[in-house]
Amino acid sequence: MAPMHSAEQRPAAGNAGEDAAAPNDFARQLAPPHRQRLLTLARQSIRHGLDTGRAPALETSAEPPELLVHRAAFVTLELRGHLRGCIGHLEATQPLVLDVSDNAFAAAFLDPRFPPLTAPELDPLSIKISVLTPAMELAFADEAALLATIEPGIDGLILADAGRRGTFLPSVWKQLPERRDFLRRLKEKAGLPADHWSPSLRVWRYRTESFGG
Q1: pLDDT at 201 > cutoff 90
Q2: Same domain as 189, residue 147
Q3: 88 pairs with which residues across the strands?
Q4: Residues 94 and 48 occupy one common structural domain
Q5: Based on the domain organization, do 105 and 194 belong to the same domain?
Q6: Nearest to 3 by CA among 80, 101, 81
Q7: 39-96, pLDDT tens digit by residue?
Q8: What's the CA dihedral at 76, 80, 83, 86 to 10 degrees?
C-alpha cells in the first residue's frame, strides 16, 4: 500500500507517548531502547537522503526481533513547533525498522505539501514516530451511532466511501476535540462533503504508540 500523508496539518502539541495503544496491545509496547533505536534510524535515514538524494538500503540482520515484526507506522517531522512533513502506512507490509526508515525519508523529501528538507534543518528537527495497532472496522447503523462509538483522544480513524479514503491520527484530537467536528473534517480530508452520509460508508479504528525525540 502506498504511503499516506498524515492529517496533522497544524503544529502538534504535547509530549511523546501521549497517544494510547489499544488495551490488548499494551504488552506489545516498545521498550525505551527500541524506541530510541527507531528514532536514531529515522534521523539516519534523513541524513542519508541529504547526503545521497536516496533512501538508505537498511541492513536488518543485527536489529532486535521486536523491531523486525511487521507493523505500520507514521513519521511526523516538526521544525520549531511547525509541521515539516508526515508520511506513513496504515497497514503493516514490512518490518517496523524498514517502515520507519522509509517513512522518515519520505516525510523529509517526498511530502508534496512541503519542499524537500535542507541540511540546516536537520539538527533542530523534531521527529515523532507513531506505531499503529491493526485497524478494526466499526459497526454502526447511522452517524449518531458512529459518533457514540468513537473515543476522543484515543482513536485514529480511517474513513472510506465512493472510492475515497482519509485518515486522522489520534493526535489530531488535540486540534479537533469534538467528535462531530473530527468526523466532518475527516470526511473533507477524504475528499467528501462534511455532511456526507451513505450506507456504504466504512470506518476503521486504530490506536498508536507514539514517541519522539
Answers
A1: yes
A2: yes
A3: 4, 74
A4: yes
A5: no
A6: 101
A7: 999 999 999 999 999 999 999 999 999 999 999 999 999 999 999 999 999 999 999 9
A8: -20
- Residue 213, in any domain of the structure: no
Residue 181's alpha-carbon distances to 97, 147, 165, 177, 188, in angstroms, are: 34, 10, 17, 8, 11
Distance CA(160)–CA(124), nearest Å, equals 36
Domain of 170, in residue numbers:
136-208
CATH number at residue 201: 3.30.1490.150
Rg (CA), the chain: 17
pLDDT tens digits for 91-123?
999 999 999 999 999 999 999 999 999 999 999
Nine-digit cell at 134? 491493526
As for how many domains the chain has, the answer is: 2
pLDDT at 28: 65
16/80 same-domain check: yes
135: phi then psi, degrees, rounded to nearest 5: -75, 140
Cell of 201: 460508508
Residues 156, 90 share a domain: no
